[in-house]
Each structure stands twice: as C-alpha cells, then as structure tokens.
Design brief:
The structure holds two protein chains of two kinds.
Chain A (H helix, E strand, L loop, with lengths): L1 H28 L4 H6 L6 H11 L5 H13 L13 H36 L4 H14 L3 H15 L22 H8 L4 H36 L2 H8 L4 H38 L5 H10 L3 H29 L1 H5 L1
Helix pairs in contact in A: 1-13, 5-6, 5-9, 5-11, 6-9, 7-9, 7-11, 8-9, 9-11, 10-11, 11-12, 11-13, 12-13
Chain B lengths: L1 H18 L2 E4 L16 H6 L1 H4 L4 E3 L6 E3 L2 E6 L5 E6 L19 H12 L15 H5 L2 H4 E8 L2 E6 L6 H4 L10 H10 L4 H4 L7 E7 L3 E6 L12 E5 L4 H9 L14 H6 L3 E7 L2 E6 L10 H10 L2 H7 L5 E3 L22 H10 L6 E5 L11 H13 L4 E5 L3 H7 L8 E7 L6 H8 L17 H11 L4 H18 L2 E14 L2 E2 L15 E2 L2
Parallel strand pairs in B: 1-10, 14-15, 14-16
Antiparallel strand pairs in B: 2-3, 4-5, 5-7, 6-7, 8-9, 9-10, 11-17, 12-16, 12-17, 13-17, 18-19
C-alpha cells in the first residue's frame, strides 16, 4: 500500500509542473493587458504604459517571467494581486473555505440522493420510477445553472419566503470566523439562531450546485449496477437462493461502486465550474467568483496562482479517490 | 445560572439589534481596497472615500458644486496659482483596536496625503507592491502641483505651475482623500503598512468596522463627526454581483437600497408599492467617434451627413429602453455650461444622401466598432451598431460591425490610423466640463494613448478650452464652453448617442437618500422608518 501511495505521489510532480505552465500561459494568451484595463476609457500614454508594465515586471521576456514565477513559487510565494495589492495566498485562504463548504454540501447531497436513486432505478429497470428519475436526471444534467438558481430564488425566497435570497448568513450576526466555515463558526459563536441562519443560507446554493453532479451520479450508478447485475457471480448468488437484499448489498453494490467513486471524484472538477456561476448568483464569497473577476481584469498573479492552487486541490482529491479505489478494490493496489 | 446568563445576554443582544438602526446597501462589487488613492473604481470609492474619509473640498450633496470640507475656507492668488487653505479645527480621527489618535486632524495630514502620491521618494509612495496613483496622474497633478507647504498647523498653501480652474473640483475627488499621518507613522513602527489599505482610519461620517472579502463590509456611525452625524447607527454593504438577485434581496427586505437595476426591471419596480425609485440624468455620454484623420471622414460635411442618417430616438427606445436622453452635445444636460440653444442634426436620410452626393462620396464602406461590454453609458453596443448599420444602409453606406475583447478594444481604438468609427463613452469624474471636453476632444489628447478617439484636433475648439481652464470666473468659463460646443456641433467629430438615466431602487421605508450626479452612493443622510 505504501508503494502504491508513493507511486501516485511521484506522478503528481510532472502533472504539477504541467499545470504551472498551463496556468501561466493561459492568462497571457488572452488579448488585452492589465495596464490597459486599469486605464479604461481614459487611455494611457505609451510612456506611462511602458513604465507601469516595467513596474509590474511584465516587460521581461515571457520565459524569464515564467522562471521568476516558478522560483517564487518554490519559496512559497504565490505573488500579489494587481488589483487588491494583497498576497494571492491570503485571498485564497480567505475565500477557499466558503467554496469547500458549499462544494461539500453539494457533493454530499448529490451522492446521498444520486446513489440510492441510481440503485433503485437499476433494480426496477423499465418501471415508471426508472423512467421518471432518468428523464429528470437528463433534464438536471442539461440545466442552465444561472437560470435555475434565479428560478429557485424567485420561487422559494421571493414568493414563498422560505429561504434567504443570498449570502452566507443573516447580516444581523456578526462574529469572528476563525475557521472560515460558516457552519462551524456560527456554532462556535454561541449566538442563538446563527447556526440555523447559516444552514438556511446553504440550502438553495447547495441544491443548484448539486444538480448536475446528482444527475451524473444517478445515471452512472444505474448503469454500473445494471452491468454488475448481469455478471455470473450475481446470477450464481441468486441461484444459491440468497435474498435479494444481500445479493445487491454485498455482491453487486460493492463492485458497482468502483466506477461510481471515480465519477464522484471527477465531479469535483465539475463542481468547480458550477461554483463560478453558483457563487455569482448567491453572492457566495468563494474562489469561483474570485477567478472570474481576476480573469476579466487580467490580474495575472491571481489567475496563475489561483489556478495552480485550485488544480492542486483537485489533484489532492483525485489522489484520495485513487487511494479509496485501492481500498475498495485490492486488485488495483496490486497492479 | 450559567445558562440563564447566556440567555440573558442573548436577549440583550437581540434587543440591542432591534434598537440600533442598521442600513443595508446591496452593493454590486467588492472594493479593491480601502485606501482611495491607488484605485479608480466608483465601487471602491463608495466603500472607502465616501463613508470613511473627507477631502479639503467636498462636492455639495446632490450637486457637482464644490463646498468646504476639511478646509473651512481658502484664498486663491491673483494669478490663480496659489491656493491657501484654512483647515477646520477639532476634527477627530477614527480609532480602531490597534490605533487611538493622540491629536486632531492638522496640516501634517494634508501634506502627507499629497506627498505620498506625488513624491516617489516618500516611503509611503510604494507601501504595497505594485501600488500606483492612477487618478493623481490622470488628473495631471504631477505636472500641475509645484509644492504643498505647511504655513502653520491649520494653514496649507498649494502652489501650482499654471492656473487651473478645475483644481478645487479635482481635490474634492476621492483620490485626494486626507489620510492620517499619525496612523501611517504608527503602522510603519509596527511594520504593518498594508493596514492603511485594510483597516482604514479617516475623519468621515462612518468608521470602518470589518470587511469579509466578497461578502460584507461593516461600518459604524462616527459619533464625533465634524459635520452632521449620520442618523443610522450601522451601515452594512452586502456585496451582491447579480442585478436580478439584488432586486430579490431588496424585495425580501434583506437590503434597503441597491444600485444599477437591470433596465428590464424598471417597470416592475415602479409598480411595486413596497419599493420606490429615484432617477436622475447621469453625468455621462455615449458616442460614436469617427477617425477624423482618414478620408472621407476628415470632411465635416461627410460626418454631418452620416449623423443625419442615423435615427437617434430609435436607439434610445430600443437599446436604452427609454432610460436615456438623446445627446446633442458632448456634455450632459446636468452639467453647467451645457448649451441648450444648440439644435441637434435632424434625422433626415434624404438630406443625408444629398449631402454625401454633394461631397462626392458614393459607395462608402465603413466599420462600426462595438465594444463587448456593458457600460453605464451604453447598455448594448452591438445592438446600437446594428441599428446604425441598418440606417446607414438606407443612404447607401455599407457598414461592417467589428468587435474585440475589451482590453484590446481600448488599445486598438487608440491606435492612429484606425479604420472605422468607435462606439465608446465617458462618465464624469468631477462635474467640470473640462473633464469631458479636454479629456475627450482636445488636441492634447488626440495623440497616441490619449482618450480622443476621433483624433480630432481643432485649433479654435482647443484654444477655447485652454482659455476656460485658466479663467477663474465661472460665468466667463460658461461662455467659453458654450462656444466650444457650437464648434463641436458644426464640426461633428462624433455622433453623440445618449446620456443614460441612473436609477436607484430602494425600500419605501427609506428616506433622505440623495442621488449624486457623479454616481456616488453616500448614506450619512439616510433614515429608515420603523
């Protein structure tokens, strides 16, 4: 198992280097530069443009800039935002817990609903439940997130008044946030009603962000279950007279879960993409919106280091998925 | 017993919350920082310069007139180059957990506030990596200011290199906010200089309490404010980027006031009895700038003919959904010296065609540049360009619409020899006509990197502006600017499109909000009915 883990870790090094190159080049390929965008309609004289570019260090050859970036990165320096003039790492750490909190709730929601629905649909293949759930999943999978979020806000917050419109907690509550996770901080604050308020603010954004992964997980679970249930050993188990519950729970499910776990892991990337829109609609102070703002302002340091940090986190999650995979299936460990 | 204490304190807390008046503003974006000097965005100033700081001069609420701020009075020398400011006494600085002021505001603070921006040797010039003072530079302060001297603790003399009539308006702008020298010294000693931008200390109506990035900014009333103290106790900015969501929050009572509603929502807001809507003509202009250095657009008659071929009212109706005033001058009607006697070129395709024939122009093809972003002066440039294209085709002009990514658009539209006419616009900084006319249309700004996208250099026009700039008397300046607008209309370097209307929806419980022609959002006069 140790060798398995070390092997996986070794693979991370070239991947990480590759990501630094992509993150670095991505924002520079885009037309327009930060100095011009700062000046806006007012314009900027060629001399002032050159002066500011030099001050930011963007007058050097691109390859030099890349090695500067890499060099500083190895010393743990992620750079400073051109817009806010604050260290990128500080901003990331301030915003990341909000995204994780939302992302975790969404993935838990997607898994807790998606897996049982997929299993049930597979067992009752062709039934009305199967047809309705899979059609709904298809709709969910193709859902335009922005429109969906707004629709839920207008219905549940606007018309019914059940949930708050946006934000992480009611503005009446004001307490220190040592962990950055509002659910935990609101409990720690000891203020009555704070935790309830934090939970109520999480409901709609979690549903919106969970929509696409839920659909994918439900469909993947169903097809994995169907495949496994056609296997010889399941038929044998049935032929032995084993109860249906045990056939599915012990023999089918565990094997069917392997591709499902992979799918759930892959959804982390999908979640990041969904988070950008979800965070914007629900005024959720996370890294998705932060990245979009930085891209449109060509805030090079934030985009390159931010992408790197996000990619690093996704890599970490994928590593954990791989390890879980190894736990579920000893054959993978051996190979 | 312990439980009781917890409950009792909770009750006391909630009772306290009910009593304190908290005003929630659903702002549209996060501030870049809380030191106004290094930034240029209005959103940043709404969160920093306006609630937290003051300037030597201030804009009178709801106008662009300059009134005394931290300077109680001032004298200007005969030649218009020396300004002597008499500072207000007894103005208290805010305090926070790390800093308690030992003295009131004085001349040292004024000197520090200007010197750190203008003097590259000042240790605070680069107190954060990459800081630049773009507004200070853009308002030509480095060329303009010769010296800032302290005469005594409450008298400051600013000497200029040449007379500049808009100077008093310039220093009422957010970048000229006065910061505390004593606080800066304390931060320097503590080695936490960046806190000048994170934990601001000012003299303004509200004290900064806390900022949670991209989520909430909290302020508390400054009870020692030298002016009229705010009515509300707490001011909260709930950062809400999407306009539709802001409106839902306003309707649900999660905030009291919001900026920038979507044009499509205006009618619904008007119909809602729980809400009210303030509106005002914006201090802006949207325009189409020809390249006046390229044939046949170097001929004013051709430009005039094209202007007459485009139906302005149709653009105002379709693109602005009526929320704009058709523009005939380059400055908006709310600005002093606006020449209302000028007649706009009529929409007359037949006359336009005849004028083009007369100028010997036939089978003209041109480009119309449509910017890719929505701006306060232009909700949809592509749609505008399409309407123009259609109108121009009726007089035999074939127009092709082009667009670039925003940064590239700004850069390419400044390049000399650019083919095509560019849709762009401007929002005023300080309410002075010079801030529109000189910046956008003078010979000085027609060079590379200037904002004069028509590359239009008219000696008569530019000399009128120069005269107006060194004249202190406002009536004389008005006459000069009115004449400049006549020259502009006659020469037609632009097709002036519209001045868009600003809307501010708020809860019907809110009173005392005053719209600013400069587009600022300030809350020291607001109140909420219980």
């Amino acid at each position: 198992m140790v060798r398995f883990i070390l092997n996986k870790l070794l693979y991370l090094i070239p991947t990480f280097l590759g990501i630094t190159i992509i993150a670095f080049s991505f924002v520079r390929i885009l037309p327009g530069d930060p100095v011009l965008l700062m000046a806006g309609e007012r314009g900027v004289s060629p001399e002032r443009h050159a002066e500011l570019t030099a001050q930011l260090g963007y007058d050097k050859p691109v390859v030099m800039q890349y090695f500067d970036f890499l060099g500083r990165l190895l010393q743990g320096d992620f750079g400073t935002s051109l817009v806010t003039k604050k260290p990128v790492l500080d901003e990331f750490m301030a915003l990341f817990p909000a995204t994780v909190e939302l992302g975790l709730c969404a993935i838990i929601l997607a898994t807790v609903i998606g897996v049982p629905v997929g299993i049930l649909a597979a067992i009752k293949r062709g039934s009305w439940f199967d047809q309705i759930s899979m059609t709904t999943a298809l709709v969910g999978f193709s859902m335009p997130i922005f429109w969906w979020g707004l629709l839920l806000i207008i219905f549940f917050s606007g018309m019914l008044g059940w949930t708050p419109v946006s934000g992480r907690i009611s503005l009446l509550y004001y307490f220190p946030t040592p962990t950055g996770f509002m659910l935990i901080d609101s409990l720690l604050s000891g203020q009555p009603g704070a935790f309830k308020s934090a939970v109520s603010h999480l409901i709609l954004p979690s549903i919106v962000l969970a929509t696409i992964p839920l659909a994918v997980i439900a469909r993947q679970t169903r097809s994995a279950m169907l495949e496994v249930m056609g296997e010889d050993y399941v038929r044998t188990a049935r032929a032995k007279g084993m109860p249906q519950r045990r056939v599915i729970g012990v023999h089918a499910l565990r094997n069917a879960m392997i591709p499902v776990v992979t799918t759930i892991g892959l959804q982390i990337g999908v979640l990041m993409a969904g988070a950008i829109l979800t965070e914007t609609i629900f005024s959720w102070p996370g890294i998705g919106k932060w990245m979009i703002d930085s891209i449109s302002r060509r805030d090079y340091p934030v985009v390159q280091s931010g992408l790197l940090l996000i990619a690093g986190m996704v890599m970490l999650v994928n590593l954990l998925v791989d390890l879980t995979y190894g736990l579920i299936n000893p054959r993978i460990r051996a190979s | 017993m312990k439980l009781f204490l917890v409950c009792a304190s909770a009750l006391a807390l909630s009772a306290g919350l009910a009593q304190a008046k908290t005003f929630v503003y659903c702002s549209e974006a996060s501030p870049e920082g809380f030191d106004p000097a290094p930034y240029t965005a209005g959103t940043t100033f709404d969160a920093s310069a306006h609630p937290i700081y003051n300037r030597l001069t201030e804009f009178k609420k709801g106008t662009t007139e300059v009134e005394p701020g931290l300077a109680e009075s001032w004298e200007v020398s005969e030649d218009g180059t020396e300004y002597t400011f008499h500072l207000r006494q007894g103005v208290k600085w805010h305090s926070n957990e790390k800093f308690t002021p030992t003295r009131d505001f004085n001349a040292d603070d004024v000197l520090f506030s200007f010197d750190r921006q203008g003097n590259a040797e000042n240790p605070w010039h680069q107190y954060n990596p990459g800081i630049t003072y773009e507004y200070y530079t853009a308002m030509s302060m480095p060329e303009l200011v010769k010296s800032v001297e302290k005469i005594d603790d409450y008298t400051v003399k600013i000497t200029l290199n040449s007379p500049e009539a808009p100077f008093l308006a310039n220093i009422a702008m957010p970048f000229a906010s006065i910061v505390s020298k004593e606080y800066a010294d304390a931060l320097e000693a503590a080695g936490t200089r960046e806190d000048l931008n994170n934990m601001p200390i000012g003299t303004g109506p509200f004290k900064f309490v806390a900022y949670q990035k991209d989520a909430v900014i909290r302020y508390a009333k400054n009870p020692d404010y030298w002016g009229t103290a705010p009515i509300i106790d707490d001011l909260v900015f709930a950062i809400t980027p999407d306009a539709a969501v802001r409106l839902q929050k306003l309707k649900a009572g999660e905030c009291h006031l919001m900026p920038y509603p979507a044009p499509a929502d205006i009618e619904a807001i008007r119909a809602d009895t729980n809400l009210k809507l303030d509106e005002q003509a914006g201090l802006n202009v949207g325009y189409l700038a020809y390249n006046t250095t390229l044939a046949p657009f170097d001929n004013p008659q051709v430009r005039k003919a094209l202007n007459m071929a485009i139906n302005k009212q149709a653009i105002v109706d379709a693109v602005f959904q009526g929320a704009a005033e058709p523009a005939k001058n380059p400055i908006p009607p709310t600005m002093w010296s606006y020449n209302d006697a000028i007649q706009d070129d009529p929409y007359d395709p037949e006359a336009a065609k005849a004028m083009l024939d007369e100028a010997g122009v036939s089978d003209l093809t041109m480009q119309i540049w449509a910017m890719p972003v929505q701006r306060p002066y232009m909700p949809n440039a592509r749609r505008t360009a399409e309407l123009m294209q259609e109108d121009l085709s009726k007089v035999g002009v074939k127009a092709e619409i082009v667009s670039y990514e925003w940064g590239e658009y700004l850069a390419k539209s400044m390049e000399a020899g650019r083919t095509g006419a560019v849709i762009l616009g401007w929002t005023g900084d300080n309410g002075d006509p010079d801030n529109f006319l000189s910046v956008l249309l003078s010979c000085d700004s027609a060079g590379e990197g200037g904002a004069n996208r028509a590359f239009w250099c008219n000696e008569e026009f530019s000399s009128l502006l120069k005269d107006a700039k060194v004249t202190a008397d406002q009536a004389e300046r008005t006459a000069l600017y009115e004449q400049a607008q006549v020259v502009f209309k006659d020469q037609a370097p632009w097709y002036t499109i519209a001045h868009s209307t600003q809307y501010v929806p708020m809860s019907a419980k809110v009173s005392g909000f005053v719209m600013s022609p400069l587009g600022d959002f300030t809350f020291e006069t607001v109140d909420i009915a219980e």
